[in-house]
């Protein structure tokens, strides 16, 4: 999928790469689409779960958003196979949208609820997040970007889109990035983040 997109994948190709018979694959997956959905869930959902754990105790919506954006972009650049997988999958693929889209909407809404973000239309901002994510990943992976590692600039730009002043956005994306924890044994549901009480 990283090489040619989901439409290029056949059961025979996968069987040949895995050095097994096509019948063996059908023992586990009913169709090519079932297999593709499983890969999306394994590759993308596992990262989403790890981001959920990382940001669970982070109260500042700008840091939550920044950490997630920086890890998504950083993973694509450090692991080009993973990055090309997302790029070839594309923003229109239901699996990608249903896996990461609700998380972006949740985090952006949390920013609005806490007064950190000025966003009139959260679903639109979420769509813009993933449209730019895929586009910037492609620029980075093809070497077309002027920045060899545009992770911080990408996150800074989207924080500014959410209403943060330029100077503050630049400072937030340069804070130390915590490493990704392991995915939880029991997947967490994607629910609206509660607003912390005023201090």
Give an overview in words.
With 199 residues, the protein is mostly helical. It has one domain: Tetracycline Repressor, domain 2. The chain has nine helices and no strands. Helix 3 packs across helix 4, helix 3 packs parallel to helix 6 and helix 4 packs parallel to helix 7. The longest helix has 24 residues.
Give the C-alpha Rg: 18 Å
Q: With helices defined by DSSP (H or I, 4 residues minimum), what is the helix count?
A: 9
Number of strands: 0
- Provide mean pLDDT, rounded: 90
What topology does this entry show?
Elements: H1 11-18, H2 22-26, H3 32-55, H4 61-78, H5 80-89, H6 94-113, H7 122-142, H8 151-161, H9 166-172
Helix pairs in contact: 3-4, 3-6, 4-5, 4-6, 4-7, 4-8, 5-7, 6-7, 8-9
Quick overview of this protein structure:
By secondary structure, this protein is mainly α.
Sum up the structure in keywords.
Tetracycline Repressor, domain 2; 199 residues; mainly alpha; 9 helices
